[in-house]
Write a structure and sequence with these properties.
The complex is a heterodimer. By secondary structure, chain A is α+β, with helices and mostly antiparallel strands. Chain A has 10 helices and 34 strands. The chains are: A alpha+beta, B mainly alpha. The structure holds protoporphyrin IX containing FE.
Amino acid sequence: MTKVAKPQGKKIKNDSKSWQFLCSVKLAVIIIIILAVACILGTVILQMRPPEDYVSRYGEVFGKLFLAIQFTDIFHSYWFAFLLVLLCVNLGCCTIKRWRNTVLQIGFLVTHISIIMILVGCVIDMMLGEKGGVNVYEGKSVDYYLNRADYSKVPLDFQVYCDDFIIERHPPKYRLLTFVKNKELEKFIPPKVGNKIKIPGSNYAVTVKDHYPDAEYSHEPINTSNEPGNPAIYVQMLESNHVTAEGWLLAKDRNWYNDAKRDLKIEYLWADTDEDYERLAKTVGKGTKPKLDIVIEGKNISKSVPVEVGKSIPIDGTDYVVEIKQLALDYAKRDVPLKEQSSDNPAVRVEISGPQGVETRWTFSKYPDYKDKAHQAKYKDVKLTCYVPEDFSESANGLKIVQSKDGKQTLSYIKAGKLINITDWEIDKRYDIEKTGLQMRILKYFPSHSVKREVVERSGNHEGHNHGPGEHVGTPAIFVEIEGPRGTVSDWMLANNPPKWYPDKNFALLYEQSGMAVKDYKSILRVVDGGKTVVTKTIEVNDPLKYKGYVFYQSSYDPEGERYTGLQVTRNPGIAVVYTGFILLCVGVVFIFYVKPFLRRKLKKGQKVEDYYSADEIAAEHIE
Amino acid sequence: MDFTLNITFYVYIAAIVAYVVREIWRTKALRWVAFGVFSGALVLNTILVMTRWYEANHAPMSDKYESFVFFAWTIALVYLIMELVTIFIARVHESRLGIIGALQSLLSAWMLYSAINTDSTIKELPPALQSNWLVVHVINYFISYSALSISFSAAIIYLIYRAIYRGRAQEIVMSGSNSQLRKDVTFDKLAYISVTIGFPFLTVGLITGSIWAKGAWGTYWGWDPKETWSLISWLVYLAYLHLPMILPKTKIKKTIAPIILSIVLLVAFPVVLFTFMGMHKLPSAVDSDHIYAE
Ligand code: HEM
C-alpha cells in the first residue's frame, strides 16, 4: 500500500492546475481566513433582523448592500455554504492525494476526515432533522409539536404526557451593594448584622444594626397640612348596612371609582373657584369617548373615528374596510362584560377587509402599532392606534362629590345622563343614593393627603400570592447606619427597593436579591405508543428524554402559575455522524501533537528526518 | 477570602520582579528563587480555588469571579510545569524560557486584579450550568488558554529579539544551533510548541462545549456569539498551524517566515481573550444565554 502512493502522487502531480489548487494548503488557509472573517462579521452585524432595521442602522446604501450579499444572515447564506463545501472538497482532495498509510500519518488523516464527517453530519441534520417545541399542560398530553420555523403542527405517532411539572427553588439570597459616585466604586458587603464596615477608598462606613427576615412597607395615609394641597376623602359604599367598597379618592390623582355591578361611577372633584364649582356640580359633562386612528402608510390617508362597536369604516382611496368589533377596557379580561372591566390595558378589536381577505387585529392604546409575532399582519400598511381616556366608563349613573375651596361640599346624583339632585354632605353621615338601596358615607377628609411609608415586620402567616401554602418566602429588611462627611444617618431598607442615598448624594446602598432563585425545572414525562406506556422519565435541563429518534428537552415553563412545561423537540438523524467526527477529531489532534512527536523519535532512530517525512511535514512541524 | 486574594496578587507581582531579575543576571542561584516565588503564588491561588469550591459547592468556574481566579491558577500551573519539563526532561537551560515567566505571572496578576474588582458573592448555578460537560469544557479551555498565552508571550519576545538583532538575520540562521545567539532567538520554536500543547485542548474544549449545548439547549451549534468566537479562535490557530507549509513556496524569505507566524500569534491570543471576556461588547450579545452575567 505504501508503495502505491508514490506513482499515484506522481500521476496526480501531472494533472491539471485546478486539481493541484484544490489539494493545496494555500486554498485551505485562504478558506480558513475567509471563514474566520465571515464569523466575525456574523457577530458584529446583527443577524436575521427585518430588512428595515438594516437600512435604518447602516444607511440606505450599506443596508441594501448587506441584504443583497446576504450579510444579514451569514451563517445560512449561499456563499457561506459554498465555503464549507469548498473546505470539504479541499480536505477530501488533499487527504486522497496524501494517502500513505503509515502510522505517522494517522493523525493527519483522522483529523481531516473527522472534519468532513462533522460537516456532512450537520448537513444531514439541516436537511432531514427537525426542531420545534411544544407546551404540555400538567396532566395532559400532546401528539404533535410546533415546527420552529413556521409554527406548523408536526404530528408524532405517539403521545407525550406531562404527569407533573416541578420547579425547585433555592432559598433566595440577598446582598448589599455600596456605591461611591465620584469614584465610580462599587463594592458588596455582607448584609449581616455586625460590625462597622469601612468602604475602602472613601470616608463612608456602614453598619448593619438589625434585620427582619420578613418585612413589608406599611402605607399609612397622613394629612400634612390644612391647606388643600392634595385633597382626598375616604369613602365607603354600603348596602343594607354592609360595606361593599371603601377607599381613598384623591381629587388630583385617582379620583374615580367604578361600581360595575351597580352601573355607578363615583367621582371626587375639587373646585378652586365658584365658577368651577358651578360647572362641576351642576352640569353633566360629556366625558371624552374612545377613538380609533387609522393611518394608511405611504398613502397620506388618516382618519379618526369614535369607537362604536359594529361600525364599518370604508377607507376612501383604498380597498380597505375597517370594522370595529369589540372594545375592551382591560385586554386580559376582554371576555367579561365591558362594565365589569376596569380601565387597565384598553384595546380595540377590528377586522380589516381588503384584497387578501380579512385580517383580525387587536390594537392597544398603551402599545401603539402592536403586532403579535404569532399572527402575521396581512395589511402592514394599515397602522392603527386607539385612544381610550383613563376615566372612561360605560356607567349610566354617576355620583359626583364636589368640594370647593370656600367650603361648599355637595353630592350630585346623575341618572342616565341627567342631573337628578344635589345635596350637601358632611363627614360621617350616611346618604341614600336615590332608589338604589345603596348608601354612601365619607369618613375622612384630608386637605393634604400623603402616605407615610414605613418598614414593619410582617407578622402572622401571610401567604405570598405567588407561592403555594407554606411556601411563602419573606422579603427581608435591614436597619443600616451610614457614617460619612455629613454625620450619621440610619434607616430601614426593604430588599429589592430603590437604592438609599446618603444626604450628600455621593454614596448609595442597594439591598437586593442576588443569584438565580430557580434550582431546577423538572417534568415527569410519559410516552404512550399504541395505547401502552413505553417510557417514563423525569427530564430536566441537561437530561432530556429520547424516543424514536426524537429528543425532548426541558426548555421553559409557564411563567405564571407553572401550569405547563415547555419542551423543545428535536430530531437529529445526523448526530451519530457528527459525534463520531467529534471523537475522531479529538483523537486526531491528540495524536498529531502529543503522540506523533514521540513516535517519530522512537520509530526512526538513526534515520534522517528527510527520509520518512515530507517537506510539508518538516515545515509544518518546524523541524530543523 | 479577600485577604488571601490580595496577598496572592502581590506574590504574583513579586514573581514578575523575580523573573526579570533572573533574566538580567542569569545566575544559577536565581534559577529557583523565581521559580519558588511563582510556585508560592500558585499554592496561594490553589487555596483560593479550593476554598471557593468548598464554599460554593460547585466547581469554581461558573461566573466571572471564579473564572478569573481559576484562569490565573491554570496560567501559573501550566507555565511551571513547562519550566520543570524544560529543565528536567528536555534538559535545556532555563534561559531558553527567558522572561516568559515574568509575562505569565503578569497575566496571572492581571486576572487576579480583575477578580478583585468583580462581584465575588456566591451565586447559585442556573439549571443549564449544572452539567459535568461544563466542567470538562471549561477546564479544557483554561488549560488551552494558558498554553496559548505562553505562545503569545514567546511571540512577543521573539519579535523583540528580532528587532534587537536586526540585520543579523542571516547570521542567526547560519550559526550553529548551540550558539548563544541562536538560543536567544528560538522563541518562535517555543511559541510553536506551546500552540501544539494548547491546540488539542482548544479543540476538545470546543467539542465538549458543543456536546454540552446539545444537552442543555438541544442544539450542538447555534451560532451564538460565544460559540462563534471560540470557532474564530480555533480557526486562527488552525491557520497558524497550516501556514508554515505554504510560506516556503512563496517569495517570502525564509528569515521572514517566523516573523509572520509570530504576528499571527500576536493577533490570535487577543482573539482568545476577547472570546473569554469581551462578549458583552458585541451588539449580538443581547440575545445570548452564554455570556457571564455582568
Ligand atoms: C484540527 C484540525 C486540523 C489539523 C490538526 C490539521 C493538521 C494538518 C497537518 C498535520 C497537516 C500536514 C500533513 C502532513 O503532511 O502530514 C495538514 C495538512 C493539510 N491540511 Fe490540515 N489540519 C486540520 C484541519 C484542516 C482543515 C479544516 C483544512 C481545510 C480547509 C485543512 C487542510 C489541509 C491541507 C490542504 C493540507 C495539506 C495537504 C497536502 O499538502 O497534501 N486542514 N493538516
